Amino acid sequence: MPQRETIRKVARARIPAMTRAERVAAAIAGDPVDRIPVCFWHHFQPHGSGRAMADETLRFFDEEFDLDIAKVMPDIPYPFPERSITEIDQWRLLEPISLTGRFTVQRVEAVRALRDELGFDTPIVMTVFSPLAQLMYFAKDRETFLNHLHEAPIVIHEGLVTMAENLREHLRDVVDAGADGIFFSIQGASASVMPLDDYREFGRPYDLMALQGASDGWLNILHVHGDRDLYFDRVLDYPVQVLSWSDRLAGPSLREARMLTNKCLMGGWHEFGPLSSGPAEAIRAEAEDAIAQTGGRKLILANGCSVPDDTDHRWLDAARGFAEALNVPS
Fold first, then answer.
1. How is the beta sheet containing 181-186 ordered, strand by strand?
2. End-to-end alpha-carbon separation of the chain, Å?
3. Residue 319 belongs to a domain
4. By percentage, how much of the chain surpasses pLDDT 70?
């Protein structure tokens, strides 16, 4: 920690210091930054308490690593048993959820507690899975879900409508509680999961319906989840400010993505590479390469997806320290 503080003081003596929120907002706009904004994460599993989730988020993102975004993880699950649906008629068990129910109340409590602790200089985002992603978690396995999707598409559409409406209201509640936006993780937008026509029918419309709830957020991040064959170019028009994906695992590269979109890009570190297992110089090399690929503008340096929960924090500390010393364009 002392070494990181020394690096920070030297770096900020050259460029006027920004708050975390100013730094992230500048990156989104493509304006100069005092340093590249940085974020990384893993899961915490706080046993279902919004206050515990806030405490874990505060400890990790603020106190231990001084990261530029406080990302509330999806460790308070949606109130439906995962891997439970085996028969088509069971999809009709999906119902509207109450905004006074545990799922929403605990997540809103986490946001409010974080806002009270952090003030308005640190962006807060809530991680949310897309409607299609949630339904895939509810099925016994992916094969079961895809079979039901083709055998009874109307039933699946009904479930997706319910889920999208529930999430839309939940996102609105979260933003109203003080979140600056959401980290919206979509699954299925990959040729390795389903054909493009299926995603157009069962994914995209419900993604957009749910995202309506976050329309007042200024830091909405679309995470295109998957390890290969992403339909990346088919989601570039989603109403978000930032795009996140496993650029070093699934592609496209940051350089290729910059040719496709003017949105802010979030990535650069391989989640299963040096960031999770070292060595330190390889962590720095990936960070420098990310800046080289993007010119250092409209970039948030981050892992492509969650690092393993048991990642040695010395590698994360090294990554955070390097972020202070990286050269950025003026």
1. 38-39, 299-303, 264-269, 242-245, 221-224, 181-186, 124-129, 70-72
2. 27
3. yes
4. 94
Q: Which two tokens stand for residue 241?
A: 């400010």
User: Is residue 317 within 8 Å of 280, Cβ to Cβ?
Assistant: no
CB-based contact 265:274 (threshold 8 Å): no
- How far apart CA 317 and CA 232 sit, in angstroms, is 31
CA distance 281 to 128: 33
Cβ distance 308 to 253 under 8 Å? no
Tokens at 47, concatenated: 């046993």
Q: How confident is the model at residue 212 (pLDDT cuts 50, 70, 90)?
A: very high
Which two three-digit tokens encode residue 258? 């910059």
The encoded tokens of residue 305 equal 């997806």
Is residue 7 pLDDT above 50, yes or no? no
Residues 6+ apart with CB under 8 A from 7: 321, 324, 325
Burial bucket for residue 209 (CB in 10 Å: 0-12, 13-18, 19+): middle
What tokens were used for 121?
Answer: 């200089």
On whether residue 202 sits in a domain, the answer given is yes
User: What token pair was written down for 91?
Assistant: 């999809």
CB 247 within 8 A of CB 253: yes
Cα(31)–Cα(316) distance, rounded to whole angstroms?
27
Identify the three-state secondary structure at position 265: strand
- Whether 330 maps to a domain, the answer reads no
Any domain includes 294: yes
Structural tokens at position 215: 């329309």
Number of domains in the chain: 1
**Listed residue (39, 226, 216, 48) closest to 130, CA to CA:** 226
Residue 92's domain comprises 2-325
Distance, in Å, from the CA atom of 84 to the CA atom of 107, rounded to the nearest integer, reads 23
pLDDT-derived band at 3 (thresholds 50, 70, 90) equals low
pTM assigned to the model: 0.94
Token representation of residue 221 = 């991040």
Contact 157, 212 (CB under 8 A): no
CATH of the domain at 137: 3.20.20.210
Which residue is it, tokens 């339904």? 135
